[in-house]
Amino acid sequence: MTNQTAQNLEELWASILGEAQLNIAPAIFNSFVSRTSLDSIVDNRAIVACSDSMVKSNVEKKAKQELLAALNKRSQKKLDLELIIKKVKAKTLDTGPVGPLFTPPRDEEIVVKEKQLQAGLTPKYTFENYILGGHNNLAHAIAVAVATRPGEQYNPVFFHSGVGLGKTHLLQAIGNNILRNHPATKIIYTTGETFTNELIDAIQSGKAGKKSKYTTNEFRNRYRHADVFLIDDVQFIIGKDATQEELFHTFNSLYMSGKQIVITSDRPPSEFKNLASRITSRFAMGIIADIQKPGFEERVAILRARRDFLGEDISDEIISYIAQNISSNIRELEGAYMQVSVKAHSNNMQPTVTMAAEALGQSYRETKKPTVNINEVLKAVCNYYSVNIPDIKGPRRHKEIVIPRQVAMYLMKEFTETPYIAIGDLLGGRDHTTIMHGAEKIHQKVTEKGKIYTDVANIKQTLGY
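Structure (tokenized):
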């Protein structure tokens, strides 16, 4: 190749990237391969410039063979590929579509992306990358059914779980799936907090004549004319009377029109306090499904999927180690994985179990905070003592009920930042001083290391501590 103008080299490299992209992990391509350029071709050697040493190292290990194959295919001769470190100038290609990398999206893809943005959806949340297991099979099956036939089979739908267990992923996957198949569908995704804030803003602007995102009528029209209404973390509206009133009428309007409603929360409808009964009864009138913590096998599957998506060289042994030690929720599980990955990259070393242990010791264990909520604590206590939740919340003062009730008070305060007043509300509307007394009494019993100490230790273990 004799005519090595900058434009020719740029066009050739663009076509090579388009060819190689099909065989390179997206995360590796976007993070590293895209930061290369074809510097020159000398003596049957293609000199490829990398913007820095990290790019060079990752391209060498994870993309060189794919680039070489594409290079030889495009140049129609056998060339070697040499990587060098050299500042890669940012450039805009206007040479037309030369491969998959530069092929303009189809019109319908643009429409779907615009619709996702308007709906408040994040495209990365799909059914395809949602890891299935015994902890979420039912919720997933319901979500797929809803996405296939919105407003027909299951309506409304209520998903509940603790934090970081995939409620938002599943909720948004419903919306994204519907839009891919039916782009004309009007979908609205919001959260309890956003719904509340937008309502407050609309009301205040109406009273003061100030400019806001919506007027009150526009706010109502936006939500009540949706085909699919997805509301996340609805527990945020607890104690907010105006928001509850608005949501009640929005729910009725959509439901009576046969529109799909999907709701998520950190607790089931039966455990809501300070929420109007007419609202909780509507939440419960459809199908309810909970999402549990993933088991060891599911945690391994989640981490392997993460590794494969990023194209990283982390062994199954390390994956198993992380999965064994992080059992609280998916969010912390993936966070621990990234700590190990970052530590390996920063030290330019192959990750090992020892390195993983160090990474988790430096980050996770020092900053870890309990992630269980008070409802999970209550369930664990009741399961351990074989008592019913209504009895714990009720007025009975028999010993077989009082002890579990006080243990629940103690663990709720130890594991969460929930105020005594809120714990009292959950436990049948008890006064905060009663909660303080009960928690302190169990604290004293625990220091004595008798039966209560053993009971508390066993319950902690069931909660993952």
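Confidence is low (pLDDT under 50) at residues 90-99, 362-369. The two ends are 65 Å apart (CA to CA).
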